[in-house]
């Protein structure tokens, strides 16, 4: 544990932040019967009592507290209150345009993995040895569920000291973009955490009427230039991905250093657990006003 905290502090020293935050600034909403929380303007989640939710403002604060670089697309975060669970899910929303005919695209995992590895090797040449990242293979090969419009994949990676970590992502396609979910957890906990994401969060996530994938109107809505492969490669074409490598693929690349940030999530959960024991209006109502997320999506 001391090693984990040491790594955490080292990363926080080298990563830039744009604002200062403390645990007292972070105001959660706790799950329970009838508690529904917003995922930007496009979705809602029925939040189980074992989870806590951070709205757009608070998830940004938590990100900055951990030294993460904000990208302007953050809309929410969900984590567990149970002490035996170590995971957190970041939600972003991208108005990329409609990813058309996703169900017809043939995903080629071997080719995509090769592109990512080549790009990562190229980007490592311009990085200090201590900052190099290596892609070792698929943890979960990319697959698209045409019924739920979810694109899921997970990469296995190592740092320069061969410490393993995973990058588990789910992209939920919508009418004019997609919700991006990045699961942060330790490698050994990935299976349990991804099962919770799939079975206890995604099944409770509803896209609002008019923003569903099938609500796309070709006569009025913009269409994305990329397909599923481009989405896996970080929104860039393959030629660009070769040059920029994993830095583009993982715009929030420090979110995936799971073994490091699990300590931070444990700390937050304990803080929030103590808050939940105290009667608070924000934890006893399904309404998110005034604590709810800012509905403006950039």
Summary?
The chain is built from eight helices and eleven strands.
Can you describe what's shown?
With 298 residues, the chain is of the alpha+beta class. It has a single domain (2-274), classed as Protein Transport Mog1p, Chain A (3-Layer(aba) Sandwich). Helix content is 29%, strand content 24%. It is built from 8 helices and 11 strands. It has helices at residues 2-14, 56-65, 109-124, 190-201, 228-232, 238-244, 246-249, 258-276, and strands at residues 29-30, 36-39, 43-46, 51-54, 74-80, 87-94, 133-145, 150-159, 164-173, 178-185, 205-207. It has an 8-stranded antiparallel beta sheet with strand order 1-4-5-6-10-9-8-7, with helices on both faces. β9 and β10 (178-185) form a beta hairpin. α3 runs parallel beside α6 (238-244). The longest helix has 19 residues, at 258-276. It is globular and about 50 Å long. Residues 1-20, 235-263 and 280-298 have low confidence and may be disordered.
